[in-house]
Amino acid sequence: MRAMLVLAALTTAGAASAEEPKPIELMVVGTYHMDNPGLDLANVKADDVLKAGRQKELEALSAALAEFRPTKIVVERIAKTPELLDHRYAEFTPADLGNNRDERYQVAYRLAHRLGHKQVYAIDEDPDAGEPDYFPFGKVVDWAKATGAEPKLNAALDEVKAEVAQITGLQATNSVAGVLESLNRPEKDEHAQAWHYRLLAYGDTEAQPGADLNAMWYLRNAKIFAKVMTVAKPGDRVLVVYGSGHNYWLRHFARTTPGFHSVDPVPYLKKAAAAKP
Questions:
Q1: Burial class, 131, CB count within 10 angstroms (exposed 0-12 / middle 13-18 / buried 19+)
Q2: Residue 258 in contact with residue 246, Cβ under 8 Å?
Q3: Do the Cβ atoms of 104 and 75 come closer than 8 Å?
Q4: Which of 213, 190, 183, 187 is nearest to 200 (CA)?
Q5: What is the pLDDT of residues 55-96, one digit of tens each?
Q6: What are the boundaries of each domain within the chain?
Q7: Which of 172, 221, 229, 273 could form a disulfide linkage to 177, CB 3.0–4.6 angstroms apart?
């Protein structure tokens, strides 16, 4: 009788396990802005990705990322519809790769077209009128000026500028994939987040602009990932092409959210970097 009960329990457990949905594999490829929009605190000076050599490198990158076999690709763009479809991809043709430097075209759309995807998803989050700023850095600056902490803040900003200059310099000796491989190493994520956490010290018992900035930056990324959750289905393999400043939180959510599994992009980027032109 006991053996029968054990067998029944094992059978029930096996059935429950078989019914569990497949995890969503999510890979974040953090990029620099290839069209030099100049929108960040410090900006990479991107080499012209329309050059013939860079186009070959981007083709090698696309071939390597295709091995992940993504079923959905999502990008840093505000959607115009509740379905979160990227309206720009609907207008995309391969000819755009010869005249549009935007990384969404050069990386995401190139790959989506290679794989025959009919849709790309837009999951970015920006405040609407009347909503709070998701990166209220100006308040940190104002507090630092008012309290004599401006030299310390400037030194912290100099660190960011030095790192960005290093990324810019990498382009002289590396392919696009080689630069992206450097940007997507796990230690880069931790280092960037540590910089944000240092800003927690910018505040007092009355005003806490550094804490507010960290909270709002978290909120923006949480909303971005929540949009991924509305798009992705069990068993999907989702490729996220986003500014590398979002790497830490997007990967955090992929690692810790039930039903998701974070995939390391570095092996794919290394393979692309090693490819012969």
A1: exposed
A2: no
A3: yes
A4: 213
A5: 999 999 999 999 999 999 999 999 999 999 999 999 999 999
A6: 20-274
A7: 273
